[in-house]
Amino acid sequence: MLNLKKYFSAACHQPYPSACFLSPVLLFLVHFLITFEEKKELSVIMTNFGYYRALLFSWMVAVGLVWWVRKKSIQLDASLAWREAFAQRLKNQLLYGIFYPLVLAMAIATLYFLYFRINILHTVYFRRYFPLISLFLVLLNTLVFAWNQHFRKDPTMPTPPAPIKDVARQPLHAKKVSAKLQTANHLMDSQIACVYMYKGVCHYVTLSGEFFLWPGNFEDAEHTLGADFFTIRRSVMVSRLAIKEAQPEEKLMRVVLGFEVPVSLVVSYRNLVGFKNWLNAEEEEASVG
User: By CB atoms within 10 Å of each CB, which of 91, 187, 207, 226 scores lowest?
Assistant: First the structure.
């Protein structure tokens, strides 16, 4: 049974509610939209087969729009945080969260009507439904912003990391304790593929290719994650499970993952010998096992 309190807590590390979780709410909203626009009695609408066809189609479009906005918002959170560059993030959020979904919704609706040999311009779509879809996307992106800001301030989330000079003065034991506390608000180590610093902010990627913000600095991540992770270069750490291949790169080596990240994955000269030994040790353990 779904625990709503647990689901909406920051400890679950759920950046935004998923489209599947919101699907019952979306079904109700679509039903309300259709019945409101039809201006007919509910008993008449509910006995019409066209209502159920329109309900299913509109619900699928709504779920798709929520999935798109959620996916793009997570990607933008990882590459362009609100507090770092608000104007640029707002521009991108409007582009990927409202403009593109609107174009996609119009294209799908056009194909839907063409299937029934109806010109969309001869329907009430642009007069009735398009403004409501636009309003829905505006409200959805507003909720994305509010959700993001809420969990950035949520007391259950780790506090921002101390400046580098203060962190350096902390004893090693204190750093490890801090890192363990932060782990409680993260995914399991086995789900993390890569941790890296980008534009002064620590990010991580899961094995499925989803990007998230690490609620600490890179040094915390190094102390938190175990021997299955290796720091291949300054502020870039990878998991053995995520490495698809290690290719020669002139006199160095390049790590190949199952997805792209905005930082170099070439192993630094200083870490090259240690990385090779780490890989060989992992391969030997796997062969023994």
Answer: 226
